[in-house]
């Protein structure tokens, strides 16, 4: 058996294309414990996500977590599931379609994939190769780089490329946390909210958390989150006292980067903040962590502590400013890459004269 996947059929008169693969975190196929178990196992088995010794983590994961967490997670997913399916899948699909329409006519093919679950990164790479992609841009949809997010997404892409006999040229987007177009898209999202609902007393920016030891070992993620927060505040004309950066989704007993979103929400509630605006700049698309953890659980925490009005601002999703920003990022990364598609009929004739079939 060959060590490589079969190559797609080739014709000498087929145009070469540039490819963009958007990679997001992933989602279970359904909001059920049965669907959650394999999804969580794949996610929590990632060495970049959990850095404990394998033997120890295997005992914890298989002996405890996978017997308890699927049911609890399924209940959370069920609370945000839509008739079209997982919000993350729906939003990421819309982003890929919107980006493709903006890059139409530039010989660029766009696909999306999920690091965990379906469609897989390997499937995304194969779909692009089947469409004649010879130069590939890998774009994890995480604005701020973390080994457990962007790093893991690129791991999966490189693993898929290792299975190809005829590899494409590859470029990667490591992060875009301070890209002017991304910051402008975030600012436009907040300003649109303010135009409709009025400006709140404070803007809370909640980013996904990571264990503190990852920062100590050299992961730049918390620093990039703080830079995004500062740049967004500057774009909105906010003073330091008008906003706060915090971190959500803590898991386990180890210390994570602080301040924790839940603690900040509780304290703002105790301070009787009358109108709190909340946004999650580290998520390109709404998902479980934004729609359930922040929009629902976060609201309950704030109100229970004595807070007033809690206003969640949706993620960028498929908003026009964000799709334009995404297209801008891609064009910058694709600069200088132009497929050589001149004289395709002549190329085919020369190849057939040498014995080629197509």
Write up this protein.
This protein has 358 residues and is of the alpha/beta class. It has 2 domains: 17-176 and 320-334, Rossmann fold (3-Layer(aba) Sandwich), CATH 3.40.50; 180-312, 3-Layer(aba) Sandwich (Rossmann fold), CATH 3.40.50. 48% of the residues lie in helices and 15% in strands. The protein has helices spanning 33-44, 54-80, 87-102, 121-130, 147-161, 180-197, 212-216, 221-236, 261-270, 288-304, 320-334, 344-353, and strands at residues 17-27, 108-117, 133-140, 169-172, 202-208, 243-248, 275-279, 309-312. A 4-stranded parallel beta sheet has the order 2-1-3-4, with helices on both faces. It has a 4-stranded parallel beta sheet with strand order 6-5-7-8, with helices on both faces. Strand 7 (275-279), helix 10 (288-304) and strand 8 (309-312) form a beta-alpha-beta unit. The longest helix is centred in the first third of the chain and has 27 residues, at 54-80. The radius of gyration is 22 Å and the shape is globular. The mean pLDDT is 94.
**Proportion of residues in extended strands:** 15-25%
Number of domains in the coordinates? 2
Would you count the extended β strands for me?
8
Question: What form results from the Cα inertia axes?
Answer: globular
What is the arithmetic mean of pLDDT? 94
What attributes does this structure have?
358 residues; alpha/beta; Rossmann fold; 4-stranded parallel beta sheet; 8 strands; globular
């Amino acid at each position: 058996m060959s060590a490589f996947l079969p190559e797609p059929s080739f014709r000498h008169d087929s145009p070469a294309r540039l490819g963009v693969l958007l990679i997001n975190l992933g989602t279970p196929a359904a909001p059920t414990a049965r669907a959650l178990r394999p999804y969580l196992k794949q996610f929590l088995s990632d060495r970049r996500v959990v850095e404990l010794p394998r033997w120890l983590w295997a005992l914890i994961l298989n002996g405890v977590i996978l017997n308890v967490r699927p049911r609890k997670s399924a209940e959370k997913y069920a609370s945000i599931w839509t008739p079209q399916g997982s919000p993350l899948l729906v939003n990421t699909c819309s982003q890929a379609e919107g980006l493709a329409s903006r890059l139409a006519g530039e010989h660029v093919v766009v696909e999306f994939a999920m690091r965990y679950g379906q469609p897989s990164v390997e499937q995304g790479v194969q779909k692009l190769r089947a469409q004649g992609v010879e130069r590939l841009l890998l774009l994890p949809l995480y604005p701020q780089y973390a080994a457990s997010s962007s790093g893991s997404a690129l791991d999966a892409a490189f693993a898929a490329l290792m299975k190809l006999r005829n590899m494409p040229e590859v470029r990667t987007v490591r992060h875009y946390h301070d890209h002017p177009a991304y910051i402008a898209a975030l600012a436009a999202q907040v300003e649109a909210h303010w135009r409709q609902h009025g400006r709140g007393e404070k803007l809370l920016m909640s980013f996904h958390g990571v264990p503190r030891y990852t920062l100590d070992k050299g992961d730049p993620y918390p620093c990039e989150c703080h830079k995004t927060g500062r740049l967004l505040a500057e774009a909105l004309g906010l003073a330091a006292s008008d906003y706060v950066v915090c971190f959500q989704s803590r898991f386990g007993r180890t210390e994570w980067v602080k301040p924790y979103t839940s603690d900040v929400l509780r304290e703002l509630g105790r301070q009787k903040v009358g109108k709190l605006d909340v946004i999650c700049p580290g998520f390109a698309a709404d998902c479980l962590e934004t729609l359930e953890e922040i929009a629902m659980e976060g609201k309950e925490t704030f109100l229970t502590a004595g807070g007033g009005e809690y206003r969640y601002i949706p993620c960028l999703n498929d908003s026009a400013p964000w799709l334009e920003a995404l297209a801008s990022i891609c064009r910058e990364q694709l600069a200088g890459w132009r497929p050589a598609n001149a004289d395709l009929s002549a190329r085919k004739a020369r190849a057939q004269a040498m014995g080629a079939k197509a």
